[in-house]
Design a protein that fits this description.
The complex is a heterodimer. Chain A is α+β, with helices and mostly antiparallel strands. Chain A has 3 domains: 116 residues, Sufe protein. Chain: A (Alpha-Beta Complex); 55 residues, Arc Repressor Mutant, subunit A (Orthogonal Bundle); 75 residues, Fe-S cluster assembly (FSCA) (GMP Synthetase, Chain A, domain 3, 2-Layer Sandwich), CATH 3.30.300. Chain A has 11 helices and 8 strands. Chain A is elongated. Chain B is an alpha/beta fold. The chains are: A alpha+beta, B alpha/beta. At the A-B interface, helix 1, strand 2, strand 3 and helix 2 of A face helix 9 and helix 10 of B.
Chain lengths: 276, 387
Amino acid sequence: MWEYTKTVKDHFLNPRNVGIIEDADGVGEVGSLACGDALTLYFKLDDHKRIKDVKFQTFGCASAIASSSALTEMIKGLTLEEAAKVTNEDIAEFLGGLPKQKMHCSVMGRDALEKAISNYRGEAEKKVEGEIVCECFGVTDIEIERAVRENNLTSIEDVTNYVKAGGGCESCHDKIQKIIDETLGRETKVKKKVIRLTNIQKIKLIEETLEREIKPALKKDGGNIELVDVDGNNVIVKLQGTCAACSASEITLKNYVESKLRELVAPELLVEEVQS
Amino acid sequence: MKVIYMDNNATTQVAPEVLEEMLPYFSEFYGNPSSMHTFGGMVEQKIVEARERLARLLGASPEEIIFTSCGTESDNTAIRAAILSNPDKKHIVTSRVEHPAVKNLYEYLAKNGYRVTFVPVDRKGILDLDYLYKNLSEDTAIVSLMWANNESGVIFPIEDIGKVLKEKGIVFHTDAVQAVGKIPIDLKNVNVDMLSLSGHKLHGPKGVGALYVRKGTKFSPFLIGGHQEKGRRGGTENAASIVGLGKASELAARNISGENIRVKKLRDKLETEILNRVSNAIINGDREHRLPNTTSIAFEFVEGESILLMMDEYGICASSGSACTSGSLEPSHVLRAMGVPFTAAHGSVRFSLSIYNTEEEIDFIIEKLPPIIERLRELSPFWKKAL
């Protein structure tokens, strides 16, 4: 059973501001039946452009209903500029916290509010931007990137908890990991899943790393590198172009090529150069 | 608050008679059944009796019963035994609606060199027998199919399938955790080689299960250790719980005909009245071939967790196939395999009764549930649009 706070239970059992505003100034719809939760948010402004009335309808679990109810209470009386600053964290905080797996309910609230404001301002929907990463729940790279950035998410599981991406067939997990790495400023690493590589795997991985990581870097300086042989942990290479003539080639080999291969292939590798 | 417990496919109340018989084996009779002295032997005798009682419930002989720690252990033991005894065969078969104890083991084996066939079911949860038979081959090491489904209650035709598999000489295991104690089972007339069951589903204690292994079936133990259970399952016997399972089996054998008719009547009343009072409600699963105690009702355009929590306010305990209750984001694999549309799958609630439920309790749910659904539908943005 979920551990819901008293506030969550209260807003679930006695939701505030349920309903529809027929002549609403802004309407935001998010989610779908297939996804398991959905929210429609309506607001009406007063003469001073403050939110005078707000109503919602939600299909979903207790935390989805409570998040919607909380949101309506939070934004009543605010200007749209003020309301736009409400984050999903604010909603969760208002409720005294949400179980981690339920954070997507607070994100849904924030998204509905944004859509309603865009709707009022006559802006085109932002969602068309970006590329769908998670097919199961229709989540785009931009949405994932934003959730990662705003909530400091570090794992795929976190991303699933916040925006649902990756919670279905799981085939997008690699893509999500890449977005997390890029957003957090990490370099995307070649998968290090294989701990003990067979010789064939090792040689393949060395070739791949040379092609993808090392050659492009050397080519920038007019150099190149060729793989001659792999003997156990000894990687024998031939430097070409400017690298071959460079007096710093030894440093290039040890500090760059070897350390890169150790990082991405296996830590025990030694790089040797054969002279042409 | 009074608890109205309608979640008996999750677990059951330990019968008072069962508890009474177990208690001395926590205190007075603490001997090790394997010991040479009379004091230990007294415990051994009681385990012998428990084995006989369970064997009688199943129409088996006592030597064919191995006590385990739970249904999951029984399933794992059976499937691994079949694979180890047929090392050349690399194909295994099950259905798409199995309990995770079988489903996840099969998925694990699929990643470890086995070719797996998951037999589909139709919209009513009925197994596609043609698909099953078409996919059997010389290479098939085991077929494992549940006797009755925990979510829909749908019963598979184990007897018919057993005949076909016997002819083909393929090992047949059934996860009968939900069936034992609820419907009559007579293994003298059914060709299954192995059958799993669990104590706490039939008013016995948690932490004890059993595996039936038909005489002559090739077997290898999962827990390798001492000589307990004739070397087929190492580890000192969970004596008190085994005694409890024995007593629960005896009670189940006694209750299976009379009491089950009463339970079925209550279930049918609940189902009929709810369908009468709530529109856009659908029964998941075939109503003919179904456990007498189970009903899975899909309420369109509302979400299951919300229904459960609102019922919880009245002390009503049930469960849901919705995504939100499990922490996953998709509805249960059983409902998806049955092709229950998303509009309904998220709002599915399972009531599973036992002999301890009363007509007053059923009436209470019939009174309280319809307003809950109505309230949630008023909250739902899809409801008015659907009308």
